[in-house]
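dude i think i finally got it to work??
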Amino acid sequence: MIASQRKSHKYVWLIIAIVIPVMLFFAIKDLDFSTTSNNSKKEQLTASFNHSKVQIQLRQPLQSPSPLVYELNANGKPGKILGQLNGIGNYKFSTSSTAKGIVVKDGIKNEELFKIEF
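look at this
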């Protein structure tokens, strides 16, 4: 390498060393790294009950890999399994006329994600 190449090589790497961190800073400054709260969970999922049919609208993906939908019986306990939520979209499930609501549970961890009473 001749002297002029060494000089330009030094300046190019100096500029790259300054520009890349600045670009990374501007790329991540508007990202939201906060954890999800209970308020955002309510906006993720809405459900409506019409004549023994439950319609569920899922707006954001859930953290659970296998969310299962159960109907709530008269005692407020999960009863019959209605189906599984696979991703964002609208889901329709048939329920009994005595259903009091739905419960969305994680099938693997067996924890309750949502509970909606009608």
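The CA atoms of residues 71 and 102 lie 4 Å apart.
im so relieved honestly
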